[in-house]
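Suppose you are handed a protein chain with no further information: no name, no annotation, nothing but its sequence. What can you learn? This example shows the usual starting point.
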Amino acid sequence: MFFNDFLCGGFFFSWIFKVLVAALVIWLIVHTFSKNQTNKSIQMPPETALDILKRRYAKGEISKEQYEQMRKDLE
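A reasonable first move is to predict its three-dimensional structure. Written in structure tokens, the prediction is:
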């Protein structure tokens, strides 16, 4: 009897251990990829005022005259 209960208990704990190990592996993979994504966004240089001005001109938010005047002011 004792030996049979020991085997059943051992199987139960073995199953829990396997699930915990699998969960740990999944968590490590997700954590690694999310950390890499965060580092990539941090490594991008900040946008300069001239970059913003060029983007606004490209979108048509400002005219060519406004763009030229603002570019001269920035330089």
